[in-house]
Amino acid sequence: MTPAGESHDRRLRHVDALRAIAALLVVWRHVGDAYLGLGPGVTGRWLTDLGAAVDVGRIGVVAFFLISGYVIPFSIHPERSAPVATFLIRRFFRIFPAYWLSVPLGAFATCWLWGAPFGFGELLVNLTLLQSFFGVREALGLYWTLVVEWGFYLLCVALLVTGSMQRPWRWFALACAGTGAFLVEAASDRLIGMSVIGTGTAYFLLNLSMMLLGTLVRRVLVERDARVGRMLVSGVTALLAWHVVVFPVSVGWVTGSMHNPATSYALGVALFLCGMFVLRIRTRLTDWLGRISYSIYLFHPVVFMTGLWALLRLPAESPLRAQHLGIYILVNAVVACLLAAIVHRWVEQPGIELGRRLARRWVAWRQPKATGVAPA
Question: Do 343 and 297 contact (CB within 8 A), yes or no?
Answer without folding.
Answer: no
